[in-house]
Specification:
The chain is an alpha+beta fold and 211 residues long. The protein is 47% helix and 24% strand.
Length: 211
């Protein structure tokens, strides 16, 4: 654990903080499509990402899911910290997009480190800023961008995260994550195929590199 920690966070955290993380943190290797946290569950810890990717999403009153952002190598989910401070249950769902390795830090340590380690406070503030920018981008996309543009950007982002041109995903899953209907998404995907941006397969989508 300490080797991976120093590789990713050695230039960010003090040596004493790295030792604390090693002492109280729990190293976890998690397969893809594993639900780490669901909406309404008590928040028990905060992840520090060593590798892989985690999809963070929300639900509306109708149960429709909306993708918020991804956690990747070197990230942490500061949203869980904010809700914990307010004594609330989780408002997000966290599911691994790829096989992931992470360190779960107990919430009791998170608040303590904020007062003891300047590097931890700075890391938390920077994480909040990054998450807020991503959330605002999501809101702007929903409010102002045409759905086709949003869909294409969604596919490109998923391609970037999984590092593969072919995405194993159904039209229904895309519709749920984009807060749309399967019929609309299927129609837009067909349009993208006509535009030679993608090729549709059974439960998979192949993206072509831009010319």
């Amino acid at each position: 654990m300490i080797v991976a920690l120093k590789s990713l966070f050695g230039e960010i955290f003090e040596e004493a903080l790295l030792e604390e993380i090693t002492r109280v943190g729990t190293l976890r290797d998690v397969p893809a499509d594993f639900e780490l946290m669901d909406i309404g569950e008590p928040i028990k810890g905060v992840p520090l990402m060593l590798s892989g990717a985690i999809k963070i999403s929300r639900e509306d009153v109708n149960g429709d899911e909306l993708l918020l952002y991804y956690l990747e190598e070197g990230d942490s989910c500061t949203m869980t910290m904010a809700w914990e401070m307010g004594q609330q249950k989780s408002q997000i769902r966290a599911v691994t997009e790829l096989p992931s390795q992470l360190i779960m830090v107990p919430l009791t340590a998170v608040e303590d480190w904020s007062t003891r380690f300047p590097s931890w406070r700075k890391f938390i503030f920077q994480s909040y800023h990054k998450r807020m920018e991503e959330l605002l981008a999501t809101v702007d996309s929903i409010a102002f961008d045409q759905l086709e543009k949003r869909l294409w950007e969604y596919l490109l982002e998923k391609k970037r995260v999984v590092k593969a041109n072919t995405l194993s995903i159904t039209h229904q899953t895309i519709a749920q994550e984009m807060h749309s209907s399967r019929v609309v998404i299927s129609r837009l995907l067909k349009r993208l195929e006509v535009e030679n941006k993608i090729r549709l397969h059974r439960n998979a989508i192949e993206l072509f590199d831009p010319v």
